[in-house]
Amino acid sequence: MNRVTEQQEEAVLGRRVAPPLPPPDHKRRRSEPRRNPLTPLGWVSVGLTLLLVIVSLGGYGYYRYLESGIVRVPFNPGSNRPPDTGALNVLLVGSDSRDGDNKKYGATSVGLGERTDTIMLLHIAPNRDNATMISFPRDSMVLIPQCTTRTGAVLPAGIRQINSAFNDGGIECTAKTLESLTNIKINHFVKVDFTGFKAIVDAVGGIKICLPKPVNDPKSKLVLTAGEHVVSGEQALGYVRTRYALGDGSDLGRIERQQVFLTQVMKKITDGGLLTNPLQLNDFLKAATAAVTVDEGLTLERMLEIANSVKGLTAKELKGITVPTVPYTADKNRVQFAEPAARDFFERVRLDTDINTAPTPGKTAAAKIENSQVRLQVLNATGEVGKAVQVADDLAEQGFVVTQVGNAAIAPATSIRYAKKDAADGPGYGDAVAARLSKDKRTPVEGKVKALTSQPYESKATAKTPAQTSTQAPTGPIVQVIIGKDWPGVRVVSAIPDSLKDKVVDSTTNPCK
User: Fold this and answer.
1) Are 240 and 120 contacting, i.e. CB atoms less than 8 angstroms apart?
2) What's the CA gap between 226 and 414, in Å, rounded?
3) 391: number of CA atoms within 13 Å, CB side?
4) Largest alpha-carbon pair distance within the chain?
5) Residue 459: which residues within 8 A CB-CB, separation 6 or more?
6) Which class for 362: exposed (0-12), middle (13-18), buried (19 or more C-beta within 10 A)?
7) Dihedral sign from CA coordinates of 302, 306, 307, 309
8) Residue 418: strand pairing partners
9) Bridge partners, 407 (sequence order)
10) At what angle do helices 60-67 and 278-291 cross, to 10 degrees?
11) Among positive and negative, which fits the CA dihedral 193, 194, 195, 200?
12) Cis ω on the peptide bond leading into residue 340 (within 30° of 0)?
């Protein structure tokens, strides 16, 4: 394995330009023709949709029979892993194995293992009311941590193309790489191959696509006229594999087209009558369970648990986004993550811990209290310099009116407090703040703490918040936010920042591209 210089590492991390990177060892093994990628349609069918339909079946014994056909393998990305935030994160990969029924896609590659040119992370928020598909371009040059190869050898850490993690170290190395890059814990994985993909599309009766121009691509075996078509089987596989016949020929363009295809699949399954058609639903379930390999932790019980939590999720809540990238400094044919945009995006996803909030016990039902009605005093009890202002900025962006920032005695736990004289209204105003904090909901506490220091808060926000545009200043109780050492962070409104909004793919995206 080639050694990676300090300059090369700094190029990927965006600190300075590096000289051209020597080709990785795994590239020298590619004497066979370049393999076309497989879209991870199987994950949408099994990683999300299958879980959606389990509950509607109502036949536990029948599903026990179906799920016995799912192949499960051990999954252990290592001991040093990100914390669990309550979100559901599923790693989704498409395998280009040529073994078994996949032999016709490259007989010379039978027995040579499997690769993936499709890597996605399905992120479902803790309250299970929205899902984000995050695509990682296969040409991304990233720092891959030390892994164990498929043969049991140690693969040293180094800067390599992101899909080499799966090629050389399998699914566990892929998960370990993504966790190190995003600090997002991966709960499960789903893998699907060529044959499984076709069977799933056939089972849902094909998917409507729209071509802006005629396509004749011998590599993907796709030959279609311009306009709308319903594709299934080989045509569907060819559509998601073609690269140079559509768009600008880049992998980024193909990823966007694949995401559009996936949203059309979700619309067909959730809105197209599949769930109310017993025969078609049966065909779909049989095809889906036979098409995938999953981790051992994705048991029947775990699937049922997830199904109950996501049964209200539909195509409208499914959004696709590609990690922001820029050309790789050492090779313009590859890309690297755009910083700080990628880092900020991963942080927003990680903090997207929206929860179902319930009223404080004993509080009667009342009109919803808007963030702009709540005045806050933010006190730092962590000992970390500047923490109060940092948190105050985050809360101000959410529309809260921060009046003061300061310090309090060191406290292990974060708390939300209101004055005893505000016992009637305080809990309601405190709940509005609790709803915007990550992780488990915190119950507001009666009784304020004494500030060691306190000063007026000056907002650094560039955009006006709802509170700033309000014509009437809030008059309700002032709520204290005590930042303890377990500070969970402020939940972001959207995991996708405004700078990436134009890159989002969802059920409303025009498929004619």
Assistant:
1) no
2) 59
3) 32
4) 79
5) 393, 396, 402, 465, 468
6) exposed
7) positive
8) 446
9) 380, 453
10) 30
11) positive
12) yes
Which residues contact residue 71 at a Cβ distance below 8 angstroms, ignoring those fewer than 6 apart?
A: 292, 293, 294
Taking alpha carbons only, the member of 51, 104, 483 closest to residue 303 is 51
420: its two tokens: 């005893």
In whole angstroms, give the CA distance from residue 252 to residue 503.
11
| Partners of residue 480 on adjacent β-strands | 377, 417
Q: Looking at this protein, which amino acid is placed at residue 303?
A: M
Cβ-based neighbours of 494, under 8 Å, separated by 6 or more: 348, 352
Claim: this prediction has a pTM higher than 0.70: no
Which strand (E) or helix (H) includes residue 225?
none
- Please report where in the chains the tokens 């959004």 appear, as a residue: 319
Are 52 and 274 in contact by the 8 Å Cβ rule? The answer is no
The beta strand positions in 296-400, using DSSP E, are 318-322, 325-328, 331-337, 375-380
Containing 207, the helix (H) or strand (E) segment is strand 207-211
Q: Is the CB of residue 155 less than 8 Å from the CB of residue 319? A: no
Q: Between the CA atoms of 98, 103, 104 and 108, what dihedral angle is there, to the nearest 10 degrees?
A: 70
User: Is residue 144 within 8 Å of residue 159, measured between CB atoms?
Assistant: yes
* Euclidean distance between CA atoms 22 and 1, whole angstroms: 10
Query: What percent of the chain lies above the pLDDT cut of 90?
Result: 28
Among 120, 27, 82, which Cα is nearest to 334's? Answer: 27
pLDDT at 261: 77
Closest CA to 200 of 228, 240, 227: 240
Q: What does the DSSP 8-state code read for residue 34?
A: P
Phi/psi region, residue 461 (left: phi>0; alpha: psi -120 to 50; beta: rest), is: beta
Q: Tokens in use for 187? A: 């709960």
Determine the length of the chain: 513
Q: What is the sign, positive or negative, of the torsion defined by CA atoms of 78, 81, 86, 87?
A: negative
- In one-letter notation, the amino acid at residue 374 is V
| Tens digit of each residue's pLDDT (9 = 90 or more) over 434-475 | 888 877 778 999 999 999 999 999 876 543 444 444 446 788
**160-215: pLDDT as tens digits:** 999 889 988 999 999 999 999 999 999 999 887 767 777 778 888 888 888 888 98
Give the amino acid at 359: P
What interhelical angle do 194-203 and 278-291 show, nearest 10?
A: 170
SS3 330: coil
